[in-house]
Amino acid sequence: MQTHTEDSQLADQIILITGAAQGIGASVAKACAQAGATVILLDKQVPQLEAVYDEIVEQTGIIPAIYPLDLKGATVDNYKQLAQTISDNFGKLNALIHCAATLGQLAPVMNQDPKTWAETIHINLTATYLLTQACLPLLKQQTSHLIFTTDAHKHTAYWGAYGISKAAIEAFAEQLKDELEAEGKVIVSTIDPGEVRTALYARAYPARNPEHLNLPDDVVHHYIGKLNIEANSAA
Questions:
Q1: Which GO MF terms are attached to this record (predicted)?
Q2: How far apart are CA 48 and CA 27, in angstroms?
Q3: Phi, psi of 43 (to 5 degrees)
């Protein structure tokens, strides 16, 4: 077991990560813990969350938190309760990293299923907005980081609501950056990790050989790099 030290890059920081059960979210969570942070693992897939939890404890000695939540059905009150739980248990939130996403349906616009479209927009955009809104008061208590995961496919044919939601996430991040800049507390960033060997990529390209792709662990440096900006001030 590797234990962190007080001079670890992200020591004493509390970081909430969505989509933490697998893929990029799980790798980012483990990397943050390796850097000394206490991570809050948010996802709907409890067994996978527990596996990530166990790996973090074994590798770092840091005890993370698990917060099961289905973004598809969560209400405004659910997000408010999450923020209150973080406040009650940790007293602060140094970073919120959005990694959760659903692919939805890849099809021409005229063939898109309206229900699937609405669900994809809700999970990828509206839920992200609601969670961010609920956590902003905690984030604004100190220098903190708000990181959104985006995707270059936002303008590509057939990418439907997934592409639209990623374009909207970038606009949302720019709005927040503009609104929060004067106060100087919350550092807003977007990260496009590129093509990564994840379950979402496998669904999008079932016939492609993924062997040449980066693994989730290969792209976590983008996220850790953002968190290291003024990291000491955020502690």
A1: oxidoreductase activity
A2: 12
A3: -175, 170
- Collapse the DSSP code of 40 into the 3-class scheme (helix H, G, I; strand E, B; otherwise coil) and give the result: strand
Catalytic residue among 53, 67, 79, 162: 162
The predicted-structure confidence for 21-59, as pLDDT tens digits, reads as follows 999 999 999 999 999 999 999 999 999 999 999 999 999
Q: Does residue 3 lie in a domain region?
A: no
Return the CATH number at 68: 3.40.50.720
Cβ atoms of 189 and 149 within 8 Å: the answer is: no
CA dihedral 230, 231, 233, 234 (to 10 degrees): 120
Residue-wise pLDDT for 93-151, tens only, equals 999 999 999 999 999 999 999 999 999 999 999 999 999 999 999 999 999 999 999 99
Indicate whether 106 belongs to any domain: yes
Q: Is the pTM of this model over 0.70?
A: yes
On whether residue 9 sits in a domain, the answer given is no
Catalytic-residue membership of 67: no
> Among residues 183, 177, 15, which one has the least CA distance to residue 93?
15
Is residue 189 assigned to a domain?
yes
Q: Residues 203-228: pLDDT tens digits?
A: 877 777 878 888 889 999 999 999 98
